[in-house]
């Protein structure tokens, strides 16, 4: 259901639950556990997550799970969705979503939890939960307005508007749109670019960018920014990076 391969510092996660790559409680727990394992593996610098097949990134949760109105199951699913996608959002590696098709409900929330999103030109995205008497419970109401603004977030959630890849790019929901069938390759190319950078620098920068979303006061975030800049001088990579630039060669990072 959740497949993972690691090659050359890049982990590739595939959502594999056909036909719509929907999430189950077990699959979400597996995703959370897997992200934790990748987080602890210092050799993993980037993670690319995509859906199996050519039609779906993920259709979210299987609505059959909620047909009987069981509140205990609803609470479990909400917790599992939240914990899995919070793990994705907070992961040390750079996480890139390759949206290869429909990203609906929890499927879009999974992509929203990633650092970057690349969409196939055929992709379609929505948070349609209110249309079936539910609401986005995996971060969608918080992450979507952060990316696209309150107006578009309300338009998508409160009027059930589905957006295509071109619209998603225009409103800032995705960072790149590529021809049909090339989302994974483009996401992997972005991941390769991450590998060229200092691991520690990237980790610090990602944490600092997230400070704004955490609601950290600007003056406190700026103090942390300066402190982390100086902290980089405790390791070897800072000297290696500057020396490599001056010597006109590629740096050899040791994650130190």
Overview of this protein structure:
The relative contact order is 0.11. The strands form two sheets. A six-stranded mixed β-sheet has the order 1-2-3-5-7-10, with helices on both faces. Strands 4-6-8-9 form a four-stranded mixed β-sheet. With 256 residues, the chain is of the alpha/beta class. It has helices at residues 25-40, 71-90, 106-112, 140-158, 165-171, 183-195, 199-214, 218-231, 236-246; strands at 2-7, 10-15, 46-51, 56-58, 94-99, 102-104, 116-120, 124-126, 163-164, 176-178. The chain contains nine helices and ten strands. Strand 1 (2-7) and strand 2 form a beta hairpin. The protein has two domains: 2-195, 2-enoyl-CoA Hydratase, Chain A, domain 1 (Alpha-Beta Complex), CATH 3.90.226; 199-246. Helix content is 48%, strand content 17%. It is globular, with a radius of gyration of 19 Å.
């Amino acid at each position: 259901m959740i497949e993972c391969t690691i090659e050359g510092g890049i982990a590739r996660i595939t959502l594999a639950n056909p036909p719509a790559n929907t999430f189950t409680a077990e699959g979400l727990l597996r995703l959370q556990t897997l992200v934790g394992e990748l987080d602890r593996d210092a050799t993993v610098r980037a993670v690319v997550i995509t859906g199996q097949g050519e039609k779906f990134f993920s259709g979210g949760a299987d609505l059959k799970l909620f047909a009987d109105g069981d509140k205990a199951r609803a609470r479990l699913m909400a917790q599992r969705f939240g914990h899995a996608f919070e793990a994705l959002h907070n992961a040390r590696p750079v996480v890139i979503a390759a949206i290869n098709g429909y990203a609906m409900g929890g499927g879009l929330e999974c992509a929203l939890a990633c650092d970057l999103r690349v969409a196939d030109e055929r992709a379609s995205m929505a948070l349609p939960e209110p249309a079936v008497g539910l609401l986005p419970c995996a971060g969608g109401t918080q992450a979507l307005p952060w990316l696209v603004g309150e107006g578009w977030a309300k338009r998508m959630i409160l009027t059930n508007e589905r957006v295509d890849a071109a619209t998603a790019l225009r409103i800032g929901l995705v960072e790149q749109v590529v021809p049909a069938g090339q989302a994974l390759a483009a996401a992997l190319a972005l991941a390769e670019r991450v590998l060229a950078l200092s691991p520690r620098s990237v980790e610090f920068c990602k944490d600092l960018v997230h400070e704004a979303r955490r609601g950290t006061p600007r003056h406190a975030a700026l103090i942390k920014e300066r402190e982390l800049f100086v902290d980089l001088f405790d390791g070897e990579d800072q000297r290696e990076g500057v020396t490599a630039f001056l010597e006109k060669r590629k740096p050899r990072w040791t994650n130190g």
